[in-house]
Write a structure and sequence with these properties.
14% strand, 7-stranded mixed β-sheet, two-stranded antiparallel sheet, alpha/beta, 294 residues
Length: 294
Amino acid sequence: MVNEITVKTILNKSKTRDDWFLGKYTLNPYAGCSMACIYCYTRGSKYGGDYVEVSPKSNAVPVLKNQLRNSIRRNERGIIILGSAADPYPAVEKDLNLTREILGIIKRFKFPIHILTKSELILRDMDILNGIKEVSILPDELSDKLDNGIIISFSFSTLDKKLAKIIEPGAPSPMARLETMKKFNDAGFKTGIINMPALPFLSDSEEEIEVMIKSAKRYGADYILYGGLTLYGNAPEDCRTVYFNFLKEHRPDLVEGYVNLFKGSTSLSKRYQKDVAIRFSELSDRYDIKNSLI
């Protein structure tokens, strides 16, 4: 049984355009995410809840139609970020087609979109995505910076297949994501990698970052964005507890290092973040790949 929920709003407007992802709006067709990533920031954050059990927002389509009409009436076009809090292609989407319906509405109203996903299922919707690419209207401030109104980003924390299976148990393999990205790039879409989060002592070394960036280039990425790990909360299902339980079981040798890096905070130390950001920047320059969408 699928636990459907109803919502009063589906399209959430930000006060300012997001500098990283270029979005003015966020939209999540589902509450919860079958990818079950142990590091997901939604665990223990203000979005908290059971983020493994997936609940479709059953009235999303009519609510979205009304909200997009109102946005056009107010002359407030902007990029919609699809999948900011939960992957828009959970396992149940294959049967429910909710995300596909939503994409059809977005195409109808000619809004630009940036999709964040780990899923191969997005290939099913290439026809609608091509339509969005052809008809979407960019906001004036982005019309001379982007070729069209669709961006597709694939999320990675590691390229290690065995590690990914443990920390992202519901997600396709890293290789499957790379191959999916390549298919979209070959079809003329703007694509890239969101390396968020790079994991301390697991996927943040210079060698591992270089492999990630080289893979991005090889499989057609136009950009690669980096972000550090955040660990919210201390309750049993919060990401901090879940992540440290993973370390204790699989890599107990790293526990002390993590404690020192976080020092009781939800974020990594500023020194660490600066060091990794410099490695990403230097290696990205070496392989001639951007660290931004525009």
